[in-house]
Amino acid sequence: MMIQLTDDMIEAGRSEQDGWSREQLRLFGVSWPPAKHWKRRMAGSQFDERVVEEFLRLKDAHLPKVRVTAYASAIQFPERCLRWSPQ
User: Fold this and answer.
1) How far apart are the C-alpha atoms of 38 and 18, rounded to whole Å?
2) Cβ-based neighbours of 61, under 8 Å, separated by 6 or more
3) How many CA atoms lie within 13 A of 8 on its CB side?
């Protein structure tokens, strides 16, 4: 089914680093690097709903994944921090 791409859909695909990946833009036929005003030209265009879903699914997929648990287990806390309690 074809759906009309909205500004809100485009913004929903924006990464936490305030941008879009090359792969996301490729889905809409936008060249890399994107030309000025690409969002304005894309809003209102018709796309298959699966293309829009993939665009949204790819949000943040290009960003490196940090394993917080791996870093947390490697941190050595001083003993005084481990025994701390509020007074």
Assistant:
1) 15
2) 21, 23
3) 1
